[in-house]
Amino acid sequence: MNKVIITMIAIIVVIGAIFTAVVIFQPNHEEEDQKVETEVAEEEILDDCTDEYEGMEYENTIKANTQEEKTSPNCSLITKTYYEKCGHTTSQYSNLPQDLVNLTEDEIQEKYQEYKIESFASNEVILYQEKEGECGEHYMVKDTEGFVTVYQILEDGSEKELEVTGISTEYLPQTDKINMKNGIQVNGKQALNQLIEDFE
Fold first, then answer.
1. Whole-angstrom Cα distance, residue 127 to residue 89?
2. 110-to-16, 57, 98, 104, 116 alpha-carbon distances in Å
3. For residues 129 and 80, what is the distance between their CA atoms, to the nearest angstrom?
4. Which of 12, 43, 63, 199 has the greatest number of CB atoms lying within 10 Å of its CB?
5. 54-113 pLDDT, tens per residue?
């Protein structure tokens, strides 16, 4: 009798162990399958989103490229002129006229046909042209009756008095006095203004 009970208990224990093992391990396979399916689905979602994002990025790039740069209200205008005879380049700086605000490079070029656009940005436009002749900014600074005097050198080489400054040559250093007797040649308004400031 005892052997029968022991055998039955053993069989029940073995069956219970097998059943427990099946129950425990079966859900793990299902979870792994579910996990794999979830990862695949996430990859598909990521790929879809990435493709969609890349498409949007490309579309935005095209839109950005089609928008031409235009001049802003605080844009500065620089006009450069090269003079072939003297080889000098003059530059004039100004604020962009109101009627040229919000124009593209092509529209600016249409307004300034005699110039070539050297540089174009929303905050600065540089125009360039070449001309025959001289720049008209050649000066001679001399001592005239004890005062620093500015003469403009004309294309034919003659001198035209422009300004008698209030600066007395009496108080200038000796080397400057000697140079002033012969005349100091200066090219460009900026260089002229700097020289006059040095004498003051």
1. 12
2. 95, 34, 16, 10, 10
3. 6
4. 199
5. 555 545 544 444 578 999 999 999 999 999 988 888 889 999 999 999 999 999 999 999
Measure the CA–CA gap between 132 and 76, rounded to whole angstroms: 26
- Exposed, middle or buried: residue 179 (CB in 10 Å: 0-12, 13-18, 19+)? middle
* Cβ atoms < 10 Å from Cβ of 150: 20
Scored b (16 or more CB within 10 A) or e, 95-134 reads ebeeebeebebeebeeeeeebeeeebeeebbbbbeeeeeb
Q: How confident is the model at residue 9 (pLDDT cuts 50, 70, 90)?
A: confident
Q: Across the strands, what pairs with 144?
A: 147
| pTM greater than 0.90 (yes/no) | no
CATH classification code of 76-131: 3.10.20.420
pLDDT digits (tens, 9 = 90+) for 138-187: 999 998 888 889 999 888 888 888 888 888 888 888 888 888 888 899 88
> Token match 């790929």: residue?
47
Neighbour order of strands in the sheet with 138-144: 159-168, 147-153, 138-144, 184-187
Q: Are 66 and 46 in contact (CB under 8 A)?
A: no
